[in-house]
Write a structure and sequence with these properties.
The chain is of the alpha/beta class. It folds into two domains: 273 residues, FAD/NAD(P)-binding domain (3-Layer(bba) Sandwich); 150 residues, Beta Barrel (Elongation Factor Tu (Ef-tu), domain 3), CATH 2.40.30.260. It has 14 helices and 16 strands. It has a six-stranded antiparallel β-sheet with strand order 10-11-12-13-9-14. A five-stranded parallel β-sheet has the order 6-2-1-7-16, covered by helices on one side. Strands 3-5-4 form a three-stranded antiparallel β-sheet. Helix 2 packs parallel to helix 12 and helix 2 runs parallel beside helix 14. It is globular, with a radius of gyration of 22 Å. Bound molecules: flavin-adenine dinucleotide. The site of flavin-adenine dinucleotide has 36 residues, from helix 1, strand 2, strand 15 and helix 12.
Length: 438
């Protein structure tokens, strides 16, 4: 096989894969269609741009996202290294200034020996005899999705999910809010809007009644459970929001000394504190409705929207039919699928998938045998799951502790059990790295 790797898509997965392959001495052609052709969600032509939330999830060792990030650090993740440099305060989670992260990462990747970034839309599968990684993400251009249909057995699969609004800081009346992190973790990193029962009920009812964007006939009206629009949650029952994104647990308003009935949280989006996200408020309400309803919240009466919440396409393959345990296409073993299009869900999962595909493709190109990841590791469990899930009802998947085997990590205490699984995962990964990560 050629010592050159071709990657389509310079997002989270593609950028990470490019670094991993280049680090192992391979030449990398990285194709990215932006800025010539933009997706409906990206803001720039930068590589590795996070398109919506600025959070990479919890840092706790016993959280799924915390364990996955710990493994990524063991595997020398390029993206996480840059994420740490762009960190903004966010309690116990890793949140970043998205555009400064992407700018630093792009400059570093473009300067890396062996990496060639080629701008422009890829509409046909690039020819060649070296490994080809498809990392074109949930917003894969329609022409490429069509070109992939030969490999993916169907035209293509998609569903829809929704993103949250971004508010301009100067338009928020912070004197009506209080600063605190849930359970006082970290500094007081979130701004919280406390709601009394009556305020909550009115707000929830308005959301439930809110007018949503039209769904075109050709679009399937399917929502991904983990990313339900906030108005859909409100419609599912009057108390649903109070147990979901507006839950008040772990938050005490210092002015009253009491826990509010419900809380809307705002999280800093950028290092300069110019923008704040409404946490958990992904929505497909019409823009006018977003203004009308969100401005009824105390402190947001004059809120200006930098970006409205919206609904978007999500393209992915039916991984259990298409991929083997190395994220490699069963029909054409030269082709790997990485990131969200491969059937994983989320920023950190997409980085993990890109990292492993970059590494597997490099081993292939160097003529080395593949060494499977232990399924006791988060990375191994995730790739194993998408390759072996039930194809009839396949949906992109996040890593959860439930994907890790229980055997050998038994405990009645749920937290202890997670600790045992997390320690076992990291030990197994360290051993695997010695053997297989070249
Ligand atoms: C609108 C939206 C919001 C999301 N919000 C979140 C969130 O808040 N939290 C979270 O954890 N996950 C979120 N996700 C899911 C997922 O984690 C992100 O999409 C993540 O960026 C996926 O990484 P990726 O590398 O697979 O794709 P991307 O980061 O999207 O990278 C794919 C790249 O391929 C390029 N490309 C596409 N087609 C072509 C082509 N034909 N030729 C050349 N280049 C091409 C694109 O321009 C893009 O740069 C969101 C997804 C979407 C679509």
């Amino acid at each position: 096989m050629s010592r050159k790797i071709t990657i389509v898509g310079g997002g989270l997965a593609g950028a990470e894969a490019a670094y991993q392959a280049a680090k192992r001495g391979l030449e990398v052609d990285l194709h990215e269609m932006r800025p010539q052709m933009m997706t409906e969600a990206h803001q720039s032509g930068l590589l590795g741009e996070m398109v919506c939330s600025n959070s990479l999830g919890s840092e706790e060792a016993t959280s799924a996202s915390g364990l996955l990030k710990r493994e990524l650090r063991l595997l020398d993740s390029f993206f996480l290294r840059h994420a740490e440099r762009a960190r903004v305060p966010a309690g116990g989670s890793l949140s970043v200034d998205r555009l400064s992260l992407a700018a630093d990462l792009s400059a570093a990747l473009e300067a890396l020996p062996g990496v060639r970034v080629i701008r422009g839309e890829v509409t046909q599968l690039p020819a060649g005899d070296g490994p080809l990684l498809i990392a074109s993400g949930p917003l894969t251009s329609p022409a490429l999705a069509q070109a992939l249909s030969g490999l993916t057995l169907r035209k293509h699969l998609y569903f829809y999910d929704a993103t949250c609004p971004l508010l301009r800081a100067e338009s928020i009346d912070f004197s009506r809010l209080f600063a605190a992190s849930r359970y006082e973790k970290g500094e007081a990193d979130f701004w919280n809007i406390p709601l009394e029962r009556g305020q909550y009920e009115t707000f929830s009812a308005e959301l439930a009644r809110g007018e949503t964007a039209e769904v075109h006939e050709f679009e399937k009206k399917v929502f991904f459970d983990a990313c339900l629009p906030v108005e859909e949650i409100a419609r599912s029952g009057p108390q649903s929001l109070a147990f979901g994104p507006l839950k008040p647990v772990g938050l005490v308003d210092p002015r009253s000394g009491a826990r509010p009935f419900a809380v809307v949280q705002l999280r800093q989006d950028d290092l300069k504190k110019n923008f704040y996200q409404l946490v958990g408020f992904q929505t497909r309400l019409k823009h006018g409705e977003q203004k009308r309803i969100f401005r009824t919240l105390p402190g947001l009466e004059r809120a200006e929207f930098e970006r409205f919440g919206r609904m978007h396409r999500n393209t992915y393959i039916n991984a259990p039919l298409i991929l083997d345990g190395f994220s490699r296409c069963k029909l054409d073993r030269r082709v790997y699928f990485a990131g969200q299009v491969s059937g994983v869900e989320g920023y950190v999962e997409s980085v993990a998938s890109g990292l492993l595909c970059g590494l597997f493709a490099a081993r292939d190109a160097l003529g080395l045998e593949q060494a499977g990841l232990p399924e006791t590791t988060a990375c191994g469990a995730l790739l194993g799951y998408i390759a072996r899930a039930d194809w009839r009802d396949f949906r992109p998947t996040k890593f959860t502790f439930g994907l890790l085997p229980d055997a050998g990590a038994e405990s009645r205490d749920k937290k202890k059990k997670k600790e045992l699984k997390a320690e076992r995962a990291c030990q197994a990964l360290e051993q695997w790295i010695k053997k297989a990560a070249i």
